[in-house]
Specification:
single chain, 322 residues, Tripartite tricarboxylate transporter substrate binding protein, alpha/beta, BUG, 9-stranded mixed beta sheet, 11 helices
Length: 322
């Protein structure tokens, strides 16, 4: 290649970089869509709405929340993987789609690594074990005794991989036989729990704690290694007779693969800033969600480590790939 051609390519490259940077500076100049692979009122839906409002306030552009629950969160993740890679379609999701599903299912309709560009972590949280008031138990030990006395007769609902794994890990750790019942999202499972169709759930604090505080459900334990400041009287499952038990989850944002670095970095800036606003604090504080953000590269490395961790947790829980 001659010197003149090299200069032409260098100028072209600089022009493209300049155009990309200019595009990122003006981003967004139209509405952004946050896709949530879970139902309305779920924890992921609530964090998406809080952050969406904060981003909208900062940019003057609307943020549309689009719930696409079902099929083990495949529908929402696949929709974003197939979307145009211009930064205007963002997946607000959890470890379900990007660390757990690949170890729960033989085939996914999306690749959690190749089909996405990581943007930022958004938070970490724990779950709460809840039962209806009619169930004759008041703590984890009594529940274990009942589950063993009625082997195979009790059922637990789950609306996410995090919820499912928490339940399966409990079964494996306690030697109990509890039938699992899938739902499109955790709030739907809680509805049946309130109605007595199922007997227990391990669900996110956002969904389960308000029902426990109102007396509609009984809280038996939390899945974190320490008690939640939101419910200091509720013991950890580990301290209640299941030593070593722990199950947590995380939130993160992704965009379709091929989205330019400039747009990814601009979205990172918008979301990291949004997470620290008073608007977003209305979600983080009341739900006990730990505010954790990251760079895109930090999320990429975190996701890889979490995938390995979830593979080990799922194997320990004795779950076979479907």
């Amino acid at each position: 290649m001659n010197t003149h051609r090299r200069r032409q390519l260098a100028v072209l490259g600089l022009a493209l970089l300049g155009a990309s940077a200019a595009s990122a500076q003006s981003f967004p100049d139209r509405p952004i869509t946050f896709v949530v692979p879970f139902a309305a009122a779920s924890a992921t839906d609530q964090i998406a709405r809080a952050l969406g409002q904060a981003v909208s306030e900062a940019t003057g552009q609307p943020v549309v929340i689009e719930n696409k629950p079902g099929a083990n969160s495949f529908i929402g993740a696949q929709a974003v993987a197939r979307a145009k890679n211009d930064g205007y379609t963002v997946l607000i999701t959890t470890n379900t789609t990007h660390a757990a599903n690949e170890h729960l299912f033989k085939k996914l309709p999306y690749d959690p690594v190749k089909d996405f560009e990581p943007v930022t972590l958004l938070g970490k949280g724990g779950q709460i074990m809840v039962v209806p008031p009619s169930l004759p138990v008041n703590n984890v030990k009594e529940f274990i005794a009942l589950a063993k006395a009625q082997a195979g007769k009790l059922s637990f609902g789950y609306g996410s991989s995090s919820s499912r794994v928490a339940g399966e890990l409990f079964k494996q750790s306690t030697g109990t036989e509890i039938v699992s019942v899938p739902y499109r999202s955790n709030p739907m499972g809680v509805t049946d729990l309130l109605g007595g169709q199922i007997q227990v759930m391990w669900t996110d604090m956002t969904t389960g704690l308000p029902q426990a505080k109102s007396g509609n459900l009984k809280a038996l334990g939390v899945t974190t290694s320490t008690r939640s400041p939101l419910a200091p009287d509720v013991p950890t499952i580990a301290e209640s007779g299941v030593p070593g038990y722990e199950s947590t989850y995380w939130f993160a944002a992704y965009v379709p693969a091929g989205t330019s670095d400039a747009i990814v970095n601009r979205l990172n800036q918008l979301l990291v800033t949004a997470a620290r606003t008073p608007t977003a604090a209305k979600f983080y504080g009341p739900t006990g969600t730990e505010l954790v953000t990251s760079t895109p590269d930090e999320l990429r490395r975190f996701q890889a480590a979490e995938s390995q961790k979830w593979a080990q947790i799922i194997a320990k829980a004795g779950i076979q790939k479907e």
